[in-house]
Amino acid sequence: MSNMMSVVRFTFKNRFLAKASIVSTIIFVVLISVVINLPFIISLFSSDDTTSIGITQSGSYSEQMAASLQQEEEKIKIVLLPDAGSPEANLQQAKERIDNGELTGYLEVAEENGVLFKAVYHSDKSLGTSEQSMLTTVLQSIKTEAVVKELGLSQEQLAKLNSPIELESMQLTPAEGSGAEKEPGEKMVAVGLVYVLVFLLFMSVMLYGNLISTEVTAEKSSRVMEILISSISPLTQMFGKVLGMLLLGLSQIGIYIVVAAINIMLPHNLEILSSLDIQLSQIPLSLIAGFLFFYLSGFLLYAFLFAAVGSLVSRTEDLGQAVTPLTFILLAGFYIGMFGLSSPDSTFVVVTSYIPFFTPMIMFLRVGLGEPALWEIGLSIVIMLASIGFFGWLSAKIYRVGVLMYGKRPSWKEVRKAMKAYNV
């Protein structure tokens, strides 16, 4: 046991304090901070930018439009221009002001019988998406009011006409033991969190799995393995490396979660969440518990397999080809998870959630977004524990033989022969 803890400490310390690990951790911390604060950063550069749009002061729509936009935001400022007598003269007048920098653009609006039916924006610069959306909304509102007056509709009739239809999803026959239906705000939080955590699980297993196999192969290629197995058994090495990498992964993920939490709790980010009607208290505990279990089980399952594959390779140049099947399996699980974001209860997603190589990502997705019954979650837990036990046992047998086999990468038939020869 002391030898295993020595391997765990050495693996963790050697990787955690490595320059590459420190640099990559800092880069990810900066990226997380930038991504979370991106809306605030953008607002710092665009908060003082005001789009001044000229409108010819003719008809009733110009003053009405200026008043409507003034009630919205100050990103758009309407400048009323005197009527020059003709559309061509009005446009020429606006062009001169645009060239002088007085205006950003000119909005030419056509009306018929007091009702707007067309608008053309003239400018040297393209109109931003938010500004264009705001202008379209205001123009549509003015047109609607004009049509309502023309038809003689009352404000009550207009309110009934514009009132949106609320579509609510209700599950008629919830699965036995499944949780209550999620509220809209909770669903939004769950979708975002599941996407991030599935991606984190995929990247973590891919990264640390490759690190395990690379370290084993590097020790074999440098003949360090021959010295190690004389003092520490191969099984102790394998389990020690896997546990050391697991601690490394949990430590770095813990750092990222703390950094993300600190950034989310900043006042400007809390305001954004509040405007979207998102509350951090809406994060379900089942989602957090599910991530912890499926992260640990998925990590151990793939870590054992990567260690076994690494033990069969004598040169680091050949390692990429050897781990390709595991990489493809991981990618398949990730892409199924991305598909499952939009349909977590589809038959395909449900079936793949019971395949042990896909269960960590797919069943976690179903727990977060779908309505799996408690017996389904329990079955997936049993499947993962049994798979870890079986593949851990199989990987240990392969590892004991693989670290002693040098030269070209052996076939599975040769590995079985070696197992029989060594009574493994």
Number of domains: 2
**Proportion of beta-strand residues:** 5-15%
Mean pLDDT: 80
Strand order of the largest sheet: 2-1-3-4
Largest sheet: 4 strands, mixed
Morphology call: elongated
pLDDT < 50 runs, ≥5 residues: none
Helix coverage percent:
55-70%
List the total number of helices: 18
Radius of gyration: 31 Å
What's the helix-strand series?
HHHEHEHEEHHHHHHHHHHHHH
- Category by helix and strand content: alpha/beta
Quote the distance from N terminus to C terminus: 21 Å
Count of β-strands = 4
Give a nutshell description of this structure.
The protein is built from 18 helices and four strands.
Characteristic terms for this protein:
alpha/beta; Alpha-D-Glucose-1,6-Bisphosphate, Chain A, domain 3; four-stranded mixed beta sheet; 4 strands; 68% helix
Q: How would you characterize the overall build of this protein?
A:
The chain is of the alpha/beta class. The protein folds into two domains: 50-152, Alpha-D-Glucose-1,6-Bisphosphate, Chain A, domain 3 (3-Layer(aba) Sandwich); 180-421, no CATH class. The chain has helices spanning 2-16, 19-36, 38-46, 61-71, 87-99, 129-151, 155-162, 184-221, 224-231, 234-264, 267-275, 285-311, 319-322, 324-340, 347-352, 359-369, 374-402, 412-421; strands spanning 51-56, 76-81, 105-112, 115-123. It has a four-stranded mixed β-sheet with strand order 2-1-3-4, sandwiched between helices. Strand 1 (51-56), helix 4 (61-71) and strand 2 form a beta-alpha-beta unit. The protein is elongated, with a radius of gyration of 31 Å. It starts with a helix and ends with a helix. 27% of the residues are buried. The model has no long low-confidence stretch (mean pLDDT 80).
